[in-house]
Amino acid sequence: MTNAQPDRSSQSQFGRLAGAYGASKTHAQAGALASAASMLGDRRYGTAMDIGAGPGFTAFAVADHCDRIVATDVTPEMLEQARSLRGERGAPQTELMLTAAESLPCRDGSLDLITCRTAAHHFLNVDSWLAEVHRALAPGGELILIDTISPDDAQATSWMHDIEIWRDPSHVRNLTEAEWVDAIERAGLRVAETAISRVDLEYPDWTERAGMAKEEAVRLGRALKDAPPAAAGAFGIASRADGTIEFYWPILSVKAVKP
Ligand SMILES: C[S@@+](CC[C@H](N)C(=O)[O-])C[C@H]1O[C@@H](n2cnc3c(N)ncnc32)[C@H](O)[C@@H]1O
Question: Is 150 in a helix, a strand, or coil?
Fold first, then answer.
């Protein structure tokens, strides 16, 4: 199941919301950032590229481990956020590059590290993207991929997919853990480490950050509240007396190595 939206719908979605993402506590503080840094271990990297960098949070988190860090994104407004945040986030050396994930302007084997957090579910063709990652990485180079994933339950997955696309038309698909591992290995990378965590979300903050019209957001809130039991259980959906609704998406972190 995929979202058949036009190719660059991410640019319009994230272009108008870049400021909200730059200010988002969810994105700046999520535990998955710590997991990205911990997967790096003690290694020192030469050239690193963060893909779908948005306001730059992941690039900033790994910058100290690298001689050179390049934050890339397809949305110019997101890179402008990264430009204004990089100094205060302690990574003024972060370079910025406007490019699509599927076509990286770098030589074969020229990158020692590629990171990509909560962006891959917007990519139209994950296999083509992973082929590009494989091309760009040097032998021994590493991919650290962090993304929201679908649970194994088919009903919960289908519900999550509908909710995600409703909120954000640039959403394409959350793969399952097994689908990611399979796709990464088919691309010729070796999966070295995986970890499951979650990102805690709250309605209406979640719909506001996506710039949803008020009426649609209210309808989506109702759908969250009335979620089928399989989804309510899989995503820990809990309504509070003040009208807010807490839930979470599962997150997969993967470290993969190019042999
Ligand atoms: C939710 S933000 C991720 C933010 C960031 N990675 C972080 O760790 O906070 C998703 C980003 O992916 C970018 N994006 C979506 N599709 C893309 C593509 N095909 N190529 C490059 N960037 C893309 C969007 O422009 C957006 O900035």
Answer: coil
